[in-house]
Design goal:
The protein has about 240 residues and is an alpha/beta fold. Strands 1, 2, 3, 4, 5, 6, 7 and 8 form an eight-stranded mixed sheet that branches. Helix content is about 45%, strand content about 20%. It has a single domain, classed as Vaccinia Virus protein VP39 (Rossmann fold, 3-Layer(aba) Sandwich). It comes from Vibrio xiamenensis.
């Protein structure tokens, strides 16, 4: 049972940039379930996609693994022999809790949890790579390089699963989807103060792209197939197949 997210429930004089620190790690399951529409569906489907695309004796990468939800979903579904999952995050608070979650469940598929910057990780002999709400926190200048490295490390037919918050070029649609997301958070018990303060804290560290931006990058890098497979309001997930 996770703690309730009340990080932004009281007025904050000076709101700093959002960080994945100890406080966030303690309440992260509650925070993400109440903040990201469709999150549970995405986690479940990541496992199903991993089951379909994982090949024997290949590596699986969960880049920006946080507490390991996507890793655990993949490990539950993967039946191929010789696979190993690498779960990587640069937050020590997330990594320590992720290790506890991973160790609580036995499986034939080994998992190595690594504290590191995902931009420094070598991607080798991969059949599945997951970026689950991670790319949007990287500098826009670093995104193409990381995706290119992933592409180079994927086996032919391998899959990248990329979940993100989206921006939309049509201003009316963009504002409507933002409003619907805020309605979703209100329905999950967040106050107007919490919604406002969280938005102020995260706006400088999370810079989403449009779906068109993602597709353009996939095409430029060389992925043979790519599409949005899930969307709820301004959140969604895409696949890109080498």
């Amino acid at each position: 049972m996770s703690n309730k997210d009340n990080i932004f429930s009281a007025p904050i004089d000076k709101i700093g940039d959002f960080t994945f620190d100890e406080r966030v790690a303690e309440v992260f399951p509650d925070m993400i379930q109440r903040s990201v529409p469709g999150y549970s569906n995405i986690i479940s489907a990541i496992g199903m996609l991993a089951e379909r695309f994982a090949k024997p004796n290949t590596n699986i990468y969960d880049l920006g693994c946080s507490l390991g939800a996507a890793t655990l979903s993949m490990r539950r579904h993967i039946e191929q022999e010789g696979c190993k999952i690498f779960a990587i995050d640069n937050s020590s608070a997330m990594v320590e809790r992720c290790k506890l979650h991973i160790n609580a469940y036995r499986s034939d598929t080994p998992v190595e949890v690594i504290e590191a910057d995902i931009r420094d990780i070598e991607i080798q002999d991969a059949s599945v790579v997951v970026l689950n709400f991670t790319l949007q926190f990287l500098s826009p200048d670093d995104r193409f390089a990381l995706l290119s490295k992933i592409y180079a490390g994927l086996r032919p037919g391998g899959i990248l699963i990329l979940s993100e918050k989206y921006v939309f070029e049509n201003s009316t649609a963009h504002e409507l989807l933002i409003d619907l997301h805020h309605d979703f958070k209100r329905a999950n018990g967040y106050s107007e103060l919490e919604i406002s303060q969280k938005r102020n804290a995260i706006e400088n560290v999370m810079r989403p792209d449009s779906i068109a931006d993602h597709k353009q990058r996939f095409a430029q890098i060389g992925f043979s197939s790519y599409e949005v497979w899930f969307q709820c309001f301004n959140f969604g997930s895409m696949f890109a197949i080498k």
